[in-house]
TrEMBL record:
Pfam families: DRTGG (PF07085). This is DRTGG domain-containing protein. It comes from Thermanaerosceptrum fracticalcis. Residues 5-102 form the DRTGG domain. InterPro entries: DRTGG (IPR010766), Ser_kin/Pase_Hpr-like_N_sf (IPR028979). The lineage of its organism: Bacteria, Bacillati, Bacillota, Clostridia, Eubacteriales. It comes from the Bacteria.
Amino acid sequence: MTLSEIRRLLKANPLTDHNLDERNAETACGADLLSDVLVFTKEKTVLLTGLIHPQVIRTAEMLDLVGVVFVRGKEPSREIIDLAQAKDIPVLCTAYPMYESCGILYKAGLGGAPLD
């Protein structure tokens, strides 16, 4: 699923300047604990989180995530947006809470990371 489709489904606002049609997510991860993200994600994953912290972007970079969606209408600071832009990580913001956001994406066919 492209980030453009995710943007449409979640009625999300893009906060960085990326071509969302060129970014494909194979799985999604909803988490507010970065330790969970480190354990349960893999490449080609989009992260949904309510955490507004630069470490979210650094974690996304380290794991080669497709992008980050901030949920519950939380908008990151300019510092975080600039860091995401510099690290080539698309960032979106949706008003939906995490539970609904994950449910919408799951219903549209985007699964979670398999537990090996």
